[in-house]
Here is the input.
Amino acid sequence: MEALMKGRTVVLRKYFEPMEIQEYDVPDPEPGAIVGKIRMAGLCGSDLHTWRGDQINRALPESGRPMGHEGVADVWGLGQGVVTDFTGVPLAEGDRIVFSAVYSCGRCQYCLEGDQNLCAQMRLSYRGAAGEHPYFVNTYSDFVYLPPGHPVYKVPAELSDKEVVSLNCAMGTVLQGVTVAGLKQGDVVVIQGAGGLGLYAAAFARDMGAARVIVIDGQKARLNLALQVGADEVIDIGELTDSADRLERIMESTAGRGADLVIELAGLGELVQEGINMLARGGTFLEIGNLMQDRGAQIFPQSLLRRKKIIGSNMYRPAIIPRILNFLSRNHNRWPLGKVISHEFSLANINDAFAESEWQGRETPVIRSVIVPEM
Here is the structure.
């Protein structure tokens, strides 16, 4: 670990305005803590929501909100007592690591039962406000401070940064969701939305034994990649603009039966009833994408009577991370999951990254962007 040095971090001060880059002294890790040097940070859909002002009902701290929670880092400093990751693999300075994006209280009943993602105090950074020690509590930064006891895992050498950069949000959230929804071998799965979460969902569903995977989106680059990472069929909403036509296509593709599992990953309330209509009898609708408290959905209860179920899922249990690393290692040469990352931006160009990644109301070649501090 180097002596006292400076590092940059990105802060959102006001909705609808450009983010700022602030600079602080990099702190030494306290006993049990780790300081990581960010290699690559993912531009998550939830960060886009915040940047757009979709979360304007959530007041920003006066000093601003540190931005970014997905990422992969090198160990820059190990606090006293840290000698292994959370699976017992030895850790040393310079090792690549991924870490949980879930910061929970560890004391409530949910945490004690292992459901850290249900913790009422769960958040996506170690601290909620910018400018507070240890400063580097986010991943759009040169460094990240991981507090004592925070789940950390060494990255297998065969995996690229692009394969693991979204592990601690997009991948974890999707795998947690399909796990609690009970996806099983032989299921037909429909995925609404082919952003990062939707593409990872296609690969997870195929790996878990899905008989057929159908992905729906309006961005051609995403649909093309979906066919490379596990999807059997894609539906372009630019071609099938009407909900009834999309339902007809699903029924044609499933011999009139419908899907066992429909996963909503686009964050649009109008997709809820559409997804329920696509379900087979006894099927499950999994809601993950709708993050905004003020966005409603019209549901017709009669459509649920044939034992259809709706289940929601948010983030993940940190213990799921080793499962994802195993999944990635097993499928390293099977699917080009690194292609989910289509664009790279420097930390200095963070605002350009967000502007170019925006997909609402426009066609964009961006599938998923990353920030590389040292570009």
About this structure: Residues 229 and 340 are 9 Å apart (CA to CA). The radius of gyration is 20 Å.
